[in-house]
Amino acid sequence: MGILEGKVIIVTGSARGMGSAEALDAAENGAEVIVTDILDERGNETAVEIGATYRSLDVTSKENWSEVVSSVLDEHGRIDGLVNNAGIYTSQDIFSGSTDTFQKIIEVNQFGTYLGMAAVTPIMSRQGSGSIVNISSVAGMRAQANIAYMASKWAVRGMTKGVAKTLASSGVRCNSVHPGAVETDILFSLEEEAVTDLISTIPMGRSGEPAEVAEVVTFLLSDSASYITGAEIVVDGGMII
Ligand SMILES: NC(=O)c1ccc[n+]([C@@H]2O[C@H](COP(=O)([O-])OP(=O)(O)OC[C@H]3O[C@@H](n4cnc5c(N)ncnc54)[C@H](O)[C@@H]3O)[C@@H](O)[C@H]2O)c1
Q1: Domain count, the chain
Q2: In angstroms, rounded to a whole number, what is the distance separating the alpha carbons of residues 237 and 136?
Q3: In this structure, what CATH number is given to the domain that contains residue 57?
């Protein structure tokens, strides 16, 4: 029996990359997984491969969140876990990027995470149980030049702690995960030289695999993490030691 047996779990931005690995690991551990994304074709394919269901969800839309949460409740009657994984990246340096880019990054990474938590926490509080895992980054743990992305990921870390403290007595846990350089489209979008430079800063001497982050997420979603809330777990091969 898997550690997520019987749990109903929504994973955002899970058509590909780390989100699809998190959805797969949760399903392999027994969860009923709802794969969500804005990439509908890829999302449907991922859901079929995993044995999950797919719902189209733009995390920046409050209405869309409410539709998805209602349909999951109609189908399963409960929501045990939410992984706020959807995110976009920019490497634009401090003050060099456009304000539109800044706002878009905050809208998806921060506001999308906020809307997700706002949509599921009333249900989890009523149930008296639930686990939210917010995917931040090492960028949410230290200073970086890409100010918009960094700010959004610090915000995710901060909101996590606020929700954890406020809802601890309701049985709802909320933690953040901070990946380093993980092999997905975000990493592959960087120049080869930038990737080599980045990897040279990692004490373990390599990038991470999406599955290595997914296993940590599964643990936090499970009852094995029953006394962990408001924590930040760095998964980075020692990058920010
Ligand atoms: N890959 C890394 O090295 C790394 C490191 C640290 C943190 N992260 C974080 O991990 C998360 C997953 O990223 P990834 O590396 O798998 O990248 P990715 O680009 O492969 O996946 C991101 C997913 O989010 C989806 N998405 C984008 N905007 C959306 C929206 N408005 N609504 C719903 N879905 C949306 C995309 O369609 C995509 O499927 C992100 O939050 C990212 O910031 C990644």
Answers
A1: 1
A2: 16
A3: 3.40.50.720
Judge whether 240 and 141 are in contact, CB under 8 Å: yes
3-state secondary structure of 88: coil
pTM of this structure: 0.98
* Pocket (CB within 6 angstroms of ligand 1): 12-13, 15-19, 37-39, 57-60, 85-89, 108, 112, 135, 137, 179, 181-182, 184-187
Contact 84, 132 (CB under 8 A): yes
Whether 89 is a known active-site residue: answer no
Do the Cβ atoms of 55 and 8 come closer than 8 Å? no
Kindly report, residue by residue over 135-185, the tens digit of the pLDDT: 999 999 999 999 999 999 999 999 999 999 999 999 999 999 999 999 999
221: containing domain: 8-182+210-232
In a domain, 140, yes or no: yes
